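Appendix B. Chain record.
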Amino acid sequence: MMNNQNKKNTGRFGLPLEIKYCSKCNISNQRPTTTNEYKHSKNTSQVTIEFDENNVCWACKVNAKKWDGNIDWKEREKELVEICNKYRNLPGQYNCLVGGSGGKDSVYQSHILKYKYGMRPLTVTWSPHMYTEIGWRNFQSWIHKGGFDNYLFTTNGIVNRHLTKRSLINLLHPFQPFILGQKAWPTKMAYMFDIPIIFYGESPSENGVKINNEKTFSKTGEDIHEGFVDDPIGATKIEDIMLGGEPIASHVDQGYDINEFKSYLPLEPEKIREKKIETHYLGYYLKWIPQENFYYAVDKTGFETAPERIDGTYQKHVSMDDKADNFHFYTYYIKFGMGRAMTESASDIRNGLITKEEGLGLIKQFDGGFPKKYEKDFLEYISMSREEFDELCDKFRPEHIWEKKSNRWEHKLPPWEYFEKN
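Structure tokens predicted for this chain:
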């Protein structure tokens, strides 16, 4: 798959050497969309978010369609009703599946499917690295107050720690094991329980991933983006599949059993075809507004916010299940020069919750803040000292984004300075 930038104009990780920011939502053009994690190595070039000639990002263009009147949401909902009608009366305990953690989005998906559209969802969860107290309480509320059956899968802790550390060392990407499991587990559970349809949340296009199919995962070869196809492995031998930035064979050489990594691998495409498993993005059929999902979850299951602002952002209710979550956003900030506050404020701007100027202020105040709250837990999890972690992070800083002044790393062109010049 080709990057959306000319190679001679790109730097480390395939990022554009010329830093720009969206004229509407402030998002950086360094933002990677997603990658095929089963091929992810230190040499992988990222596919970054697309900007048009007016410096408007793809995510803004997609989200604008939600509000400009060109989408007939009543017709989209009719399509959803027709899908539900097709499967509603199937025999068996469950007729659809929703993966999630008990966060605002999975609560909204599962609850509205069950109580408005009459479906019988099984909810499934791939365990976080380390549950936060608030994450665990919200997970329990989802099941007990929402009224759902749930299968929680917790993978081998020794293997997960190993993969997390290797992902960090090789890719500065400690969240990769969770991302792999979160994508792979729902389809495997649908196969095991003969469930014909899986509902996901918003289409990836809402976050800037340029895909051809906004309704469902694409068949391999149909889409331009390898991160959202149903067969990301293809004919690759299991020993050659990349996990943690190195082939599985390398982990076996380090003393691990090859079977211990199969939980992270996707369901074989022939099994998907055998059971005729469908996938659908609920956000294609219902207008997806993250803040409204939050209000819905509070009302229906008593969803709780964090007691204080989350490190690196201004929010108190987004991605707070896992103690490793904040380190995912922090390492992302190191590699791409944009962090959690930029990502979340851009979404809030696109959904009309804050202005572009307010977003800039939030980025300036909070973006890239070090995740102090769970520092001890995370460093113990990966068996590193703070000094070792910082030294590793510095090795991944692209030189076209970062420079060191007076023994302090500074962003060469933060968004507020960019907009002063442009």
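Further analysis of this model is presented in Appendix C.
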